Amino acid sequence: MRITVMTADEQIISLEVDPHESVENVKALLEVETQVPLQQQQLLYNGREMRNNEKLSALGVKDEDLVMMVSNAAALSAPSNNLGLNPDGSAVNPGAFQQQLRNDSNTMAQLFQADPELAQVILGNDLNKLQDLLRQRHRQRSELHRQQEEEFALLEADPFDVEAQKKIEAAIRQKGIDENWAAALEYNPEAFARVIMLYVDMEVNGVPLKAFVDSGAQSTIISKSCAERCGLLRLLDQRYKGIAHGVGQSEILGRIHVAPIKIGNIFYPCSFMVLDSPNMEFLFGLDMLRKHQCIIDLKENVLRVGGGEVSVPFLQEKDIPPRFLDEERYSKEASSSGNPVTSGKAEKKNDPPAMGQSSGVARSSVTQGPDFEAKVAKLVELGFGREAVIQALKLFDGNEEQAAGFLFGG
């Protein structure tokens, strides 16, 4: 096993020793490392002096434990328990322990390499935090020791014991997971970083806001409160009511068929589904991304609109309102209140227009009834095939103007 020895001058030494090694032999190894004669060494473990004829295992010394070494002269000038550790891993005298470590720049440099969190706490002024961290490290060493003992026990287990073999299989699987995690941490550390969603600055009907760009949402949505703030609630068509399903559900209050949005310095027409969703102010969905030929350029970190005629940068984390980044709270609210996040479907509440969908925040697809047939007939009169007209109307949620623009563009 490996133990760490801290000397009076705060030198840190790691030793590989047998659990049944005598204290005297450990002192002999330390004499080679520190040039301090064996007779002048005094070893302390958990605040108790370790006598030469005692065994490490009998004293309870375990793998990765810390042992203090002081010379007899140093022991006379300071109480022997000042630099010792309690059975729970905390320092007997945390102030003296902290000061001893602070005074040695070499020791602190090693700690910053091996355990930067502990090094920061030692440099701080919170002794309670230092004690808590020392106890935590002691628990971690104890857990590691327990796991090692379990592994040794499994190696000696009966090969025909089914339960033992299951534990061995689980241990092998966990080892593979741990190795995979370590490899990811070394070669792909960015995978553990927080991913910030894509937001851009826009103006809706002259009101500036932060728009969430989501190509996984089928429709562009705006919350009721945001629509009211932008002066658009008066244009709400309540015939398009429904229920949007996703992570939970939210009521679709209706649709605003067209309103100006400003991206960069150019204005574009946009239609919205209005949701009773306080958690999502404005979401720029796939319908408008397609209509305005947008490109999500993650290499340059910009949103290109109109095939590239205007580019706006995605916002950095510091520029996004904190309430948009509080993902944990948002997720809890969504699951408890039934609000959709980025995908879902709309269920029909009233007769025309019918509400249906496959994915996205909300989708209103008028696929039957006199209104739908009237739109089909009007577009067919323009010279388009019936099947193409139906597909275009479905693609744009029954929006006749957008469907016509798509057909003319094709």
UniProtKB/TrEMBL annotation:
Pfam families: Asp_protease, UBA, ubiquitin. It is found in: Cytoplasm. Residues 328-366 are annotated as: Disordered. One of its GO terms (cellular component) is cytoplasm. Its main location: cytoplasm. SMART domains: UBA, UBQ. CDD domains: RP_DDI, UBA_scDdi1_like, Ubl_Ddi1_like. It comes from the Eukaryota. GO terms for biological process: proteolysis. Residues 369-410 form the UBA domain. PROSITE patterns: UBA, UBIQUITIN_2. Residues 333-342, 356-366 have a biased composition (Polar residues). GO terms for molecular function: aspartic-type endopeptidase activity; polyubiquitin modification-dependent protein binding. Residues 1-70 form the Ubiquitin-like domain. Keywords: Aspartyl protease, Cytoplasm, Hydrolase, Protease. InterPro entries: DDI1_N (IPR033882), Peptidase_aspartic_DDI1-type (IPR019103), Peptidase_aspartic_dom_sf (IPR021109), UBA (IPR015940), UBA-like_sf (IPR009060), Ubiquitin-like_dom (IPR000626), Ubiquitin-like_domsf (IPR029071). Belongs to the DDI1 family. This is DNA damage-inducible protein 1.
